[in-house]
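ARCHIVE CARD
CATEGORY: sequence design from structure
SOURCE FIELD: tokenized fold
FIELD CONTENT:
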């Protein structure tokens, strides 16, 4: 029995061929592109763009998007090769099981919880906040009471009356997580259809903002395009490198959050009709489309409004603020932005929960988690028990924990997964040179090594507090592995 034992490719591909007994193959290349766009376009586009412009780079935030996109593209090329060669649910977890052994596979599976489950809960909390924004500013209704839309660890003091409101439970956040979890149980094809409608809506609004906003760009706001180096201290007292190369790199680290999610496409490999052709198209296609939209959107937003707008009046609602202040006659578009953000958050939660359930499904099938995680619904052919467990875990987190508690944990978990995927490509090229690869990562090992370097640089930029949190999380995962998973592994205990 070895903690380094690898799952053979013969065994993995054999599992894929049993599709009639497992997950339904219903997804096409366009479904995967829509899933990717659904995961990528969310809070990052509407919130992080203004944040990076205010704190780091001004109009050169567009260059920050390009740097972050390069890092994601390098990892995306590696994901595309692995997902087309090993079309199994589980994403980076499955790839590392085949290349680096069981212990590393467990570590990455545990790490992916940070990206998918914690990420979904955090977005669910943000969804709750924007729901109130919709009720008040668009529908002109009363907001959901503070006590029923915030965690018990939060309170608010009215600046006028001095009345203190205490949170009890965040019901909207729990509601959206529950609804989307039940939708995923109903079926991946149905979920992909709903996601497709959401994607069409929010992409249309993004294109409208780019199209209408282009005529309101003030060239003075783009001069100089890369501001001179200085230091900016935000209203929390935190200092930031502003301008110059460090400002661009700081912006890249900030807007990296906007790209999280494209890798979740790879978790649906076993539900794709033609994974060897469609997975690379889905991963790289969604990343390419979103990168172009991000750069154009950032160029327009920083041209319409000033950096000072993003630092003062705009804040999290900077897009709506810029439209209302400068795009006279298009105030209706600001209301649609709120709708787009809600829709964007919903599709992000959908893809994150899809990714988490498929990772749990694979780990349950392998015995590293209790076997019921690998059970499929008799009618819908979805891992419904995994979805129900995730509904409870993510729902409770969203209902009772403040969103800012997790901080940058989602990003550092994602970057760690990217690094192991890049390593997996290099290892698999050496150990399985004859494996049929429908898509090949170019210039191996250069591209994977560059991907590792860029991702490590972003991890470095997240600071030692996040390194410490990641370390504590991984130690907890190792304790669970040696107490439970190691003794129930089907690879090491085939009789169980």
């Amino acid at each position: 029995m070895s903690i380094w034992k690898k799952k053979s490719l013969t065994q993995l591909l054999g599992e894929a061929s049993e599709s009639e007994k497992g997950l339904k193959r219903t997804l096409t290349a366009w479904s995967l592109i829509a899933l990717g766009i659904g995961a990528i376009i969310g809070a990052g586009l509407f919130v992080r763009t203004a944040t990076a412009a205010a704190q780091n780079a001004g109009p050169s935030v567009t260059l920050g998007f390009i740097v972050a996109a390069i890092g994601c593209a390098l990892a995306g090329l590696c994901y595309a090769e692995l997902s087309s060669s090993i079309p199994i649910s589980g994403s980076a977890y499955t790839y590392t099981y085949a290349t680096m052994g069981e212990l590393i596979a467990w570590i990455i599976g545990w790490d992916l919880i940070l990206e998918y489950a914690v990420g979904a809960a955090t977005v669910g909390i943000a969804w709750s906040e924007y729901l109130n924004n919709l009720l008040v500013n668009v529908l002109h209704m009363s907001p959901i009471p503070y006590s029923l839309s915030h965690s018990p660890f939060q309170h608010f003091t009215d600046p006028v009356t001095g009345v203190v409101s205490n949170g009890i439970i965040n019901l909207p956040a729990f509601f959206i997580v529950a609804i989307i979890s039940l939708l995923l149980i109903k079926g991946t094809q149905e979920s992909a259809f709903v996601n497709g409608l959401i994607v069409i809506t929010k992409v249309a609004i993004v294109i409208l903002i780019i199209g209408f906003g282009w005529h309101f760009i003030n060239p003075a706001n783009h001069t100089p395009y890369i501001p001179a180096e200085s230091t900016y201290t935000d209203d929390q007292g935190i200092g930031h490198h502003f301008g110059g190369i460090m400002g661009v790199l700081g912006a890249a680290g900030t807007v990296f959050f906007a790209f999280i999610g494209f890798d979740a496409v790879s978790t649906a490999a076993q539900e794709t009709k033609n994974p060897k052709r469609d997975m690379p198209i889905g991963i790289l296609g969604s990343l390419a489309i979103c990168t172009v939209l991000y750069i154009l959107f950032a160029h327009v937003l920083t041209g319409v409004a000033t950096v000072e707008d993003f630092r003062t009046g705009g804040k999290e609602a900077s897009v709506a603020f810029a439209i209302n202040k400068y795009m006279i006659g298009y105030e209706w578009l600001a209301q649609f932005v709120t709708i787009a953000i809600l829709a964007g958050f919903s599709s992000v939660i959908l893809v994150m929960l899809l990714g988490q359930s498929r990772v749990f499904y694979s780990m349950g099938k392998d015995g590293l988690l209790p076997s019921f995680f690998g059970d499929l619904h008799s009618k819908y052919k979805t891992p419904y028990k995994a979805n129900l467990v995730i509904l409870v875990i993510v729902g409770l987190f969203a209902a009772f924990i403040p969103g800012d508690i997790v901080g940058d944990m989602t990003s550092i978990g994602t970057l760690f997964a990217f690094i192991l995927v890049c390593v997996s490509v290099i290892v698999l090229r050496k150990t399985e040179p004859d494996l049929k690869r429908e898509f090949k990562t170019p210039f191996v090992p250069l591209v994977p090594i560059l991907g590792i370097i860029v991702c490590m640089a972003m991890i470095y930029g997240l600071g030692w507090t996040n390194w410490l949190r990641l370390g504590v999380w991984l130690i907890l995962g190792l304790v669970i592995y040696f107490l439970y998973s190691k003794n129930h592994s089907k690879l090491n205990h085939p009789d169980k």
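CARD ANNOTATION: The two ends are 13 Å apart (CA to CA). The mean pLDDT is 82.
SHELF: design records, drawer C
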